[in-house]
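Sample intake sheet
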Amino acid sequence: MNSKKEKLLNETYKKFLKVSMNKLPADMLDVIVDKNIMAYGTAIDEKIQSLADCHELVDNQKEQSSGLKFKREIIPGFRRISPEEDSATFVDEMKMNIQTGIDTHRLFLRFTTILEYSDNKWTVVHFHTSKPDDTKGETDTWHIDEWKRKNEELQKLVDEKTTDLLIKNRELEIESSLERVRAIALSMRKSDDLLDICETLFSELQKLGFDELRNAMINIHNDEDRTFLNYDYSDTLGKNITPLYYDINPVIAKQIKQIRKGRDAFSETSFKGDELKEWKRFRKKRGEPDDPRIKNTKALYYYFIQ
């Protein structure tokens, strides 16, 4: 190829690059681009099938570039001229930094351009710009491992969001239950109304999933007399009020001691084996109503909070 023709080829290619980077007016496309150009941009819908489409692509790029600062580095890759010297293929790479305020977006592109020579000028007949996946190595040709990794990351994110949502929903359920218990408590007019609070508390705890709940209690303590009134509700035995002494049973005495330590005190008691048998005899001796769930259970738990 003679030097004049080669110089014209390189100048045409450089002008095309500068137009695509908005460094030359878009009108230049009418001179250096074939009217029947076919090309692909980086976006899936950027399919160019005419000179008009090419103008639209450049105009869109210019509009989207408003307010952004670009730093580009072009890395020459491949040059080929046909034996007839009437077509040329250019393959280059570009590293691009895009400044958006205080943030910098880094982009790596590959682009192929084909030019043809006719009527003493070179024109661009095709280009293809691509943004390669960030998958290193040659062992994942079809990006299966990358796809699996992204799916795992997405699933992890979904699981985290789902867990967070479940926790928040659970918190809302608990708060709603507490509000219903508070409403009953605020409407109390006499001491026997404590049984209604027990019933509501029992019902709300069941709604929250405590399906093995036997009863709900409220104890009103009298430290001077060392006695307390036990307000008790269960769906099997209904409502009961039982007066008791602190020292009527070692287990009860221990519970009272733990729960009377101060505000937010907590007591937990469990019965199994011989202790459970002794507790059943104690209840029977006191004449408490027979509860079939206690009769058949292998363990019994009491929880109290001040």
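Comment: The domain at 3-130 is CATH 3.10.450.50 (Nuclear Transport Factor 2; Chain: A,). The CA atoms of residues 97 and 103 lie 10 Å apart.
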